[in-house]
Amino acid sequence: MKRRTALRAALGTASAVVLGGALAGDLAGQNRGPRGVLRLATGEPTAFYEAFGRLLAEQLAAEHPGLSCRVRTTAGSVDNIELLRERRVDLALVLTATARDAAGTGLFPRPVPLRAIGRVYETYLQFAVRADAGVRGVADLAGHTVSLGAPGSGAAVFGERLLRAAGLVAGTDVRVRHLPLDDAARAMRAGSVSGLLVAGGVPLPALKDLDIRPGLRFLPLAESLPRLGGREGRAGAGLEQVTLPQGAYREAGGVATIGVSNLLVCRPDLDRDVAGALTRLLVRRATSLVPGNAVGTQFLDVRSLIGTGSIALHPGALAAYRSLHG
Fold this sequence. Notes:
single chain, 326 residues, alpha/beta, D-Maltodextrin-Binding Protein, domain 2, 2 domains, eleven-stranded mixed β-sheet, 20% strand, globular, disordered N terminus
């Protein structure tokens, strides 16, 4: 796999009390360090974003005892961007492709200005179907019922696009539900849905359990990449072909799917000192922030942190990267 070296993530911040969602640096005085609260939007309970967020909070407490991190579980990337817009969180984990959509698309009719602290890791699009469903590719889903991610998730957006790329119409050719991961797993076990799509680390515990009963097949998705990149191309959308690793699931090894890069983002008005402190912690605490079950996730090295595509780095983050690495 490419760029596996370490997850460059964590939340160090420089001080403050959250007032209406704004943070201000509290660096004056006796070098007390950052103080206050940061609110981080993650993802569904038991999934990768949430596990990552918990580790961020732990490392933040170790690095900056005066600053706490409140981890908020959500449906995923789309909801997280809306929470930033509404100033209900200060930081969010989002898919690069969804962050790009926030510039103003059908998904976000009103642009949501974002800045990146860094490109922190890469997850996998995993389209799992029941082994007994007779489905071997996305085009074979015609006539089946599938869950394409929870409402407000990046997977929900990708799911509709994957169906279109295969020549299928959601709601006509394929019956589509949008279920949270745990609900989708229960529906798959009961046989009321034939498959589910999720973006996350590998292996995901919910899929690991389904792989035992009723048994899973993973669909190859990489063939859809040429139709998913948009006008900026696949690199701009943070998409690339990856291979599910051997041993992650019983029958998935070698299946070519899509890797999706993920960003830690904020609003442009995040305090410059806060953004700089976040960046330094991303670099220095990386190896302590790898969710234990995510053995297949591609962890990006320090050179990749600045590869945020069309989402500009926050000026405080950019200054910190330059001071650390020139």
